[in-house]
Specification:
The chain is of the alpha+beta class and about 240 residues long. About 35% of the residues lie in helices and about 25% in strands. It is built from seven helices and ten strands. It has helices at about 20-25, 40-55, 130-145, 160-170, 170-175, 190-200, 220-235; strands at about 5-10, 15, 35-40, 55, 60, 80-90, 105-115, 115-125, 155-160, 205-210. The strands form three sheets. Strands 8-7-6-9-10 form a five-stranded mixed β-sheet, sandwiched between helices. Residues about 55-80 have low confidence and may be disordered.
């Protein structure tokens, strides 16, 4: 039986999704949601294109819109999105606290693209939240590179200001220029991970990294948060 794909015309984020679970995230609770299943990505793209432009079966049709109706932007044929996250259950989450060797920490990511979906998670003992956030990003980018998706437009969604500021505010360039020291002359924390990030970024010429509030309404972010917490649950049971 052929694997189905799902096209969302009206939902939280219109687009094409490889599983019903992802589609359900976009349409559940969304007023007047509209979506449809297809046996191929090409058929789903054609349906979205026809519905958005008002063309069906080669015939043009007049579409009446209300003055305040939101127009849905065309869906790119190569829409690649990933979500990455990191978390800890350690004693360093409050001022004066310290990470113990027995504290658990984990990272996770979710990659979605037309015809491809993958997620992964792993953990470490005695690690920090920032280290896990970086590993989530690194592993997501590595997955995309392995799939040959790194040259396409890629959007990454993260809730870590630490990671986003390091890249989007060009702190990383400054650290490299100063020999991996901060502006105050101190060694860069998580240097070896930032070096891996610096090696990966040039391979993604069309990468956009955006912020989302953690533990809120972003379905992809909530998914990776659950995934990494499941990893930490397993670690604590051992």
């Amino acid at each position: 039986m052929a694997k189905k794909v799902y096209a969302v015309l009206r939902g939280k984020v219109p687009g094409i999704y490889g599983t019903w679970e992802e589609c359900a995230w976009q349409v559940k609770g969304y007023k007047n949601a509209r979506y449809k299943s297809f046996s191929s990505v090409q058929a789903a793209q054609a349906w979205l294109r026809d519905e958005m432009t008002g063309r069906k079966a080669g015939r043009s049709q007049h579409v009446t819109r209300q003055p305040n109706e939101r127009r849905v932007a065309p869906i790119p044929s190569t829409e690649v999105v990933f979500y990455s996250d990191g978390g800890t259950r350690n004693h360093g989450n409050y001022r004066g606290g310290h990470v113990k060797a027995t504290d658990v920490a984990a990272w996770a990511y979710l990659v979605t693209a037309p015809g491809y979906r993958n997620s992964a998670s792993a953990g470490e003992f005695g690690s920090t939240n920032n280290r896990m956030e970086l590993l989530g990003l690194i592993n997501a980018l590595s997955d995309l590179k392995d799939q040959g998706l790194n040259r396409q437009p890629v959007t990454g969604v993260l809730d870590s200001q630490y990671v986003l500021n390091g890249i989007n505010k060009h702190w990383l360039r400054g650290w490299q220029r100063r020999g991996w020291e901060t502006a105050s002359g101190t060694p860069v924390a998580n240097k070896e991970l930032w070096q891996r990030v610096a090696n990966l970024l040039p391979m993604f010429p069309k990468l956009t990294l955006t912020w989302t509030k953690g533990h809120a309404q972003n379905a992809g972010n909530n998914f990776v948060d659950r995934l990494l917490n499941q990893t930490m649950d397993r670690m604590q049971r051992k």
